[in-house]
Amino acid sequence: GTLVRMDDVCAAPGVNAYRVTFEAGTRTAWHTHSGTQLLVVTDGTCRFQKAGESVREVAAGGIVSIAPGERHWHGATPDRAMTHVALNIDAATTWLEKVTDREYGSSPS
Question: What would the pLDDT profile of 7-39 be if each residue is shown by its tens digit?
């Protein structure tokens, strides 16, 4: 999927924060981070999946915590845009394969 907008909102030592807006139906590719990532959902509902787990959703006001090295993806729901602030703590990102429509479209638990 395509990211609508990504703004760098903070660069404290060891922390990078990005406000990212996804159009309805869009998502990242599978990826990992070398450090912790926190996703603070500010608008819409974040659909995400960690490797080996089912798809889950977190509404605005919620936080998703991603452990270092955990394979995952995140994005909007099929019918609504979503914005989150991604806080990457001492974390470089490694991008992997694209999320398939089947993976993205599976029913959230």
Answer: 777 768 889 899 999 999 999 999 999 999 999
Measured between alpha carbons, how far is 66 from 59 in angstroms, rounded to an integer?
A: 16
Enumerate residues 6+ apart whose C-beta is below 8 A from 86.
17, 18, 20, 37, 38, 39
pTM: 0.89
Q: What is the SS3 assignment for the chain?
A: CCEEEEEEEEEECCEEEEEEEECCCCECCCEEECCEEEEEEEECEEEEEECCCCCEEEECCCEEEECCCCCEEEECECCECEEEEEEEECCCEEECCCCCHHHHHCCCC
Please provide residue 53's backbone torsions phi and psi, each rounded to the nearest 5 degrees: -120, 165
Question: 5-14: long-range contacts (C-beta < 8 A, 24 or more apart)?
Answer: 9/85, 14/89, 14/90
